[in-house]
Design a protein that fits this description.
By secondary structure, the chain is mostly beta strands. The chain contains two helices and 27 strands. The protein has helices spanning 97-101, 209-213, and strands at residues 19-23, 26-28, 34-36, 40-44, 56-59, 64-67, 82-88, 104-111, 115-118, 126-134, 140-142, 146-149, 162-168, 173-179, 194-200, 220-227, 231-238, 242-250, 256-265, 271-274, 279-285, 291-297, 300-303, 318-321, 327-333, 342-349, 352-360. The strands form eight sheets. Strands 7, 8, 10, 11 and 12 form a five-stranded antiparallel β-sheet that branches. The model is unreliable at 364-368 (pLDDT under 50).
Length: 368
């Protein structure tokens, strides 16, 4: 390029492509004598970097780990290229350089960056991510944005396990009825959540979801994985035994949560259990062949009313609390009046055990 203009002190060179150029300025007088200004060089960079490929994202419950191949540039060395990562709720808002540059910052401009993590995210939520790259001249390019959905944090348990009833079935066994609130999960429909019920003698055997799920002796499975289960029955329980029952809920992804274990205490033979307070009233026979009722109070036992009856046997005894709240005791009585082992009901009225009606049934034998 050669131009000669009088009184020229500046000039714009156009149409240049990326590269390094040298420039010189000459000055001459009317006689043609010339002098040279000190030449200068200039690097021209008007082309944005070339992206290296596509972004990949690996989500966890609260973050997405991002990576991408390094970009290249015709002027700036690859190690000197800078990268910026941003996020949004949709790729449509970050599919341009300006849109991505203005979005929520994940990682600010950093040289030679090919991986980063977006942290502090919500579980089961879809995010969009963009990566920008710029060269030393400030030219920017955009990697194609991607979407990534964070993993579920696992189900949330519903209301706690409730002991609805516990009752003695035979001399040696009892049953119980349990229910619990339905669980919830951000990624699995409520009706598709599955439940597992396990029982053990020690809460330490089932006090985590992992322990309860891998239940093995002395733990046993009451009900295996069943969808939309919120109640079950316990059968074949030994009398006068303290059990621990736990419920595990899992979502479609196999993530699990544990309902806190509940103690279930089975009644003794001839005992009435108050399920709301966990206390017993137990009917026993004294050494003088009278009946006696005692009530548990913490680690102590308190007698309920005075001893009652006579000739009481210990083969069949029971105590119940009626729907009206009245305590009634059924005892067997030996009477040598042509019958043995007759039954007698006593009612606890005004602090006193009082016989209710006459003897019931019995077996006739010869009395000596």
């Amino acid at each position: 390029m050669s131009l000669s203009t009088a009184n020229q002190t500046q000039f714009n060179v156009t149409g240049l492509s990326d590269g390094t150029y040298a420039f010189a300025v000459l000055v001459k007088d009317l006689a043609g004598n010339k002098s040279l200004y000190l030449p200068v060089s200039a690097e021209i960079d008007i082309t944005a970097p070339t992206i290296g490929g596509v972004i990949s994202g690996t989500p966890t419950t609260t973050q997405v780990n991002l990576s991408w191949p390094a970009a290249t540039d015709s002027i700036t060395a690859a190690a000197s290229l800078q990268y910026k990562v941003t996020r949004a709720s949709s790729t449509s808002t970050i599919n341009t350089v300006s849109g991505a540059d203005a979005a929520t910052l994940v990682t600010d401009w950093t040289s030679n960056l090919t991986a980063t993590s977006a942290t502090g995210l919500s579980s089961s939520t879809t995010y969009a991510f963009a990566v920008l790259v710029k060269d030393a001249a400030g030219n920017k390019a955009l990697y194609a944005p991607i979407s990534s959905t964070t993993a579920s944090a696992g189900p949330t348990v519903g209301t706690a396990i409730t002991l609805n009833s516990v009752s003695r079935v035979t001399t040696f066994s009892s049953s119980a009825s349990l229910s619990w609130g339905v669980g919830s999960d951000s990624g699995t429909d409520t009706a598709d959540l599955q439940y597992k019920v396990v029982i053990a003698l020690q809460s330490s055997d089932i006090d985590t979801a992992a322990k309860a799920d891998t239940c093995a002796s002395p733990c046993s499975i009451v009900t295996n994985w069943t969808a939309n289960l919120t109640a079950t029955n316990l059968t074949g329980l030994a009398n006068v035994t303290r059990y621990q029952v736990a419920v595990v809920v899992k979502n479609d992804g196999g993530l699990k949560a544990l309902y806190s274990p509940l103690a279930v205490v089975t009644p003794a033979y001839g005992a009435e259990l108050n399920t709301s307070t966990g206390t017993y009233r137990v009917l026993t026979r004294t050494t003088s062949d009278q009946a006696q009722v005692v009530r548990s109070s913490g680690s102590a036992w308190t007698q309920v009313g005075a001893n009652f009856g006579s000739n009481i046997t210990d083969d069949i005894v029971s105590i119940v609390k009626t729907d009206s709240g009245e305590l009634q005791a059924l005892v067997r009585v030996y009477q040598c009046n042509g019958w043995v082992y007759q039954s007698q009901i006593y009612r606890f009225l005004s602090g006193t055990w009082t016989a209710f009606s006459g003897m019931l049934g019995g077996t006739q034998v010869h009395c000596n």
